[in-house]
Specification:
flat; Heat Shock Protein 90; 20 helices; alpha+beta; Beta-Lactamase; about 50% helix; PAS; RNaseH_sf
């Protein structure tokens, strides 16, 4: 039985083997057919398509693939031919567009070259690294260069660096703060420079090239977005003009100073003859009369020549209107990079008319001299408005230590100013401004260190447009929230601290409206520090806030802030933590403080902060000092106190005004025996309670 089963299995095994071999042969044959007729053809087609893609078809029809070669792949080959035709058309259109653009660019280049060639001023275009990108032939002539400036070379190889970098700093600061939009000169500034060899004096104008920063770039935009990517420089040769001015300076100086000795001798002779006893009365009287007439004539001539000399010097030197904060900021920057001394910007801003570069050099020079004489390392620099009815704006340099003797200061002014063009002396810079300088000690309280100042009067601005107050629709109404106004006494050491020794932050807000509970939002917060009786103008907080809602058109006249200005600015949730950090450890001061506090308090939870600092309100302090009757608006108080300020009706401007008012009030409160923080809070609370009772009735 076993043998019979084994015999039966042999045909089946043979059949299986035969079928397997047949299947393998069929698969192999199919693979050979696919490889020969499909895969190899597809590879060949792909290579030909690659050749067509890299071809240089100039006509309307591109490279062709022979259809008959590809059998069943003819649809694909036909599609490749269609794509080749379209690619040829695209290449032809691109070539035509490039040719047209090239021709247009060449035409514009020719026109620009013609314009630049015909200009009487030298024109150079540079990037912020002062590398030359474009120039005209006139620039070569003005700089007295026989070759080429060389594209990509630094302009600082040919022109003295300091005036250029200083002017670019001015424009950068103006654009960064957004002031270029409303500034009288926009994005341009004038300067006086010289070639590096000192042979040519240049009068120039720099115009900034603005560009919006690319998204995600590391560039820091200004308030309104754009950054400076380069500048256009126009130059003219001022050598002859300034040389003539120098000659006139020397001539007039000789005329003025040369008159003094003869006049003194003449007066001495008159006095001698007057005392001579041997002349007869008639001769004596005639001689005296003639000599005195001569003296009077010479004196009048001296005064006339002196006045003409100063007029010529001042009228011929390039000057412009300057905001004192910008001027002092540039002084602080220059001193900080070249000296161990520090400069703190204090006081209220003013507008002056002058030579910015010359004044920066002058004050940096004076700070260095005072430092070496007295050892002082910390200086306050502030602008003070006109005093006693005069027209001057005073720039005061203040330090701890003795005043500078007059003879020493006169010697400093006779010396050449480091970095000054044409060998200018410090006294020359003052004469250009029809100014002088003097040093004097300052009155100090008992127990405080000796302080002194060096005062330089400067002409006021001729047309400070941004200094003019913006018309407002009306003053903000007095706002009483008795829960916010009535605050507990600061029972710690802070409450017993005299008011003049506290650290304050004076702040103000601008809002969409007057009702935070119905949806009005903050659109700007600004603040300034007050320490040791000084307004630290250089330590400020100032930011716009996106309210995430439209600004009502009727509120814009109050603050001048539009929807476009706040678009893209941080929201209040992001701003309040930064502001809380700025005011940390300080006593808050505001005018009509309850209004601003209401807005802050309503956003505390969302921002994760708490404003639990002591708060003083200058409106309540005004009522405490002057009674309830009268004008207790910020403008009214400032006018009564004789505080004249610029940049009014902005959050930062109002903060500065409030700070100046508050410092005056501290002196007045001391006379009322209100000396400490607790005294001031106690008096304010009494006024709040009285106001609450009046409203209850």
């Amino acid at each position: 039985m076993a043998v019979r089963g084994s015999d039966a299995a042999d045909p089946l095994l043979t059949y299986a083997v035969v079928m397997t071999a047949a299947c393998a042969a069929a698969v192999w044959g199919l693979w050979l057919a696919v490889d020969r007729y499909l895969l190899r053809a597809a590879e060949t087609l792909s290579r030909e398509a690659g050749l067509i893609a890299h071809g240089n078809a100039e006509g309307a029809v591109g490279g062709r693939v022979p259809l008959a070669r590809y059998g069943d792949l003819q649809p694909i080959a036909r599609a490749v031919n269609d794509l080749s035709d379209k690619l040829a058309l695209v290449r032809r259109d691109i070539a035509r567009t490039v040719a047209e653009s090239t021709a247009k660019a060449e035409e514009q280049k020719t026109q620009l070259a013609a314009v630049l060639r015909d200009l009487h001023e030298g024109v150079l275009v540079c990037n912020t690294r002062h590398q030359i990108l474009l120039y005209n032939q006139t620039a070569l002539d003005i700089l007295h260069l026989t070759g080429e400036l060389g594209l990509g070379r630094s302009l600082l190889h040919f022109v003295v660096a300091e005036p250029l970098t200083h002017t670019l700093e001015r424009l950068s600061l103006r654009v960064r703060e957004g002031r270029h939009i409303n500034h009288e000169h926009g994005t341009t500034a004038q300067f006086v420079g010289a070639t590096t060899d000192g042979r040519i004096l240049l009068e120039g104008r720099m115009s900034a090239i603005l560009q919006d920063p690319e998204p995600g770039s590391d560039e820091t935009p200004g308030i309104n977005g754009p950054i400076i990517t380069g500048y256009v420089l126009t130059l003219s040769d001022a050598t002859s003009e300034l040389a003539a001015l120098g000659q006139r300076d020397a001539l007039l100086r000789e005329a003025t100073e040369g008159f003094r000795a003869p006049i003194a001798n003449l007066r001495a002779a008159v006095e001698t003859l007057y005392d001579a006893p041997d002349l007869g009365p008639g001769d004596r009287a005639a001689f005296e009369s003639a000599m005195l007439d001569s003296c009077d004539s010479l004196s009048r001539r001296l005064e006339q020549v002196t006045a003409a000399y100063r007029s010529i010097v001042t009228g011929s030197w390039p000057m412009s209107d300057i905001h004192s904060n910008n001027l002092i900021g540039l002084v602080a920057h220059r001193v900080g990079t070249e000296s161990p001394t520090t400069v703190t910007l204090t006081g209220l801003p003013q507008w002056v008319h002058g030579d910015s570069h010359g004044l920066v050099l002058l004050f940096a020079y004076l700070i260095e001299k005072v430092h070496h004489l007295t050892g002082a390392t910390a200086f306050d620099l502030e602008a003070a408005g006109p005093q006693d009815g005069d027209r001057w704006v005073y720039l005061d340099l203040v330090w701890e230590g003795p005043a500078v003797p007059s003879a020493t200061l006169d010697g400093w002014l006779e010396q050449t100013l480091p970095g000054g063009l044409g060998g200018l002396s410090a006294g020359d810079v003052l004469q250009h401004h029809r100014s002088t300088a003097w040093s004097e000690p300052l009155a100090t309280s008992n127990g405080t260190a000796m302080r002194a100042r060096l005062r330089v009067p400067l002409p006021p601005a001729q047309s400070p447009r941004s200094a003019l107050p913006r018309p407002r629709a009306g003053a903000r109404p007095e706002f009483f929230d008795f829960g916010l106004l009535h605050q507990p006494l600061a029972t710690s050491e802070l409450g017993r601290t005299p008011l003049d020794r506290l650290h304050y932050v004076v702040f103000d807000t601008e809002t969409t409206g007057l009702s935070p509970s119905t949806g009005d939002e903050i659109i700007q917060i600004a603040a300034v520090r007050v320490v040791g009786g000084r307004i630290l103008t250089g330590e400020t907080f100032n930011t716009l806030v996106d309210p995430k809602r439209p600004i009502p058109p009727e509120s814009v006249p109050f603050h001048g802030i539009t929807d476009g200005m706040v678009a893209g600015q941080p929201t209040i949730d992001a701003v309040l933590p930064q502001f809380r950090g700025f005011v940390s450890g300080a006593v808050l001061v505001a005018h009509n403080a309850a209004f601003d506090l209401k807005f802050l308090k309503m956003k505390e939870r969302a921002a994760g902060v708490c404003f639990d600092c002591p708060v003083l309100d200058t409106m309540l302090l005004s009522r405490m000092l002057l009674g309830n009757d009268g004008d207790h608006t910020l403008d009214g108080i400032a006018e009564r106190l004789g505080i004249e300020v610029v940049d009014r009706h902005t959050a930062l401007g109002d903060s500065l005004v409030t700070a100046a008012v508050f410092l005056r009030m501290i002196e007045m409160l001391r006379e009322r025996d209100v000396r400490t923080l607790d005294d001031a809070i106690r008096g304010a609370n009494i006024l709040v309670e009285l106001a609450a009772r009046e409203r209850a009735f």
